[in-house]
Amino acid sequence: MLFNSLDFAIFLIIVFILYWLLSKKSIGYQNLLILVASYVFYAWWDWRFLSLIVFSSLADYLVAMYLKKEERITTRKVLLSVSIVFNLGLLGFFKYYNFFVDSWISAWGSFGVTMHESTLNIILPVGISFYTFQTLSYTIDVYRKKLEPTSSLVQFMAYVAFFPQLVAGPIERAKNLLPQFQKTRVFNSEAVMSGVYLIIWGLFKKVVVADNCAFFVNQIFDSTTGHSSFELIIVAVLFGFQIYGDFSGYSDIAIGVARLFGFSLMTNFLFPYFSRDIAEFWRRWHISLSTWFRDYLYIPLGGSRGGRYQQIRNVMIVFLVSGFWHGANWTFMVWGCIHGLLFLPLLLSNTNRNHVVETHMLWRQVPKTVLTFALVTVAWVFFRADSVQIAYQYIIDILTFSGWSLELFYKSSKMILFSSIILVSLVVMLVFEFITLQRNQREVRLNHYSGIFIALLIVFMGVFKNPSDFIYFQF
Question: Is 326 tagged catalytic?
Answer without folding.
Answer: yes
